[in-house]
Design a protein that fits this description.
Length: 103
């Protein structure tokens, strides 16, 4: 499995971010080909002090090739171009192969 993780620092207008993200951005994401599962939260917390991120998003793909194909698809390009419409605090995007923990 391969995961996409998106971390959003605090935006200038948190209410606009929340509304736009849920009503306009996530509908684009839901159309990504190869997307196995996705989740997000506006309740990021930190062990000490203020959390460094306002929101988080994660998506699961079968492998790195499936993620790459999804990002290069029409809806992947639309979602990437849409980020400037709500993420005024910036964005950190990382992806990685998931290693299952076993004894």
């Amino acid at each position: 499995m391969h995961k996409l993780l998106v971390l959003y620092p605090k935006p200038v207008d948190p209410d606009h971010f929340r509304d736009y993200y849920v009503t306009k951005h996530l509908p684009l994401v839901m159309k990504w080909p190869g997307l196995l599962a996705w989740r997000y939260s506006f309740d990021a917390a930190a062990g000490n002090g203020e959390p460094p991120y306002f929101a988080v998003f994660e998506a699961d793909f079968a492998d790195a090739a499936a993620l790459a194909a999804s990002r290069e698809s029409e809806y992947g390009r639309l979602a990437a171009a849409d980020v400037v419409n709500y993420a005024t605090g910036g964005v950190v995007v990382i992806d990685y192969a998931v290693q299952d923990g076993t004894d």
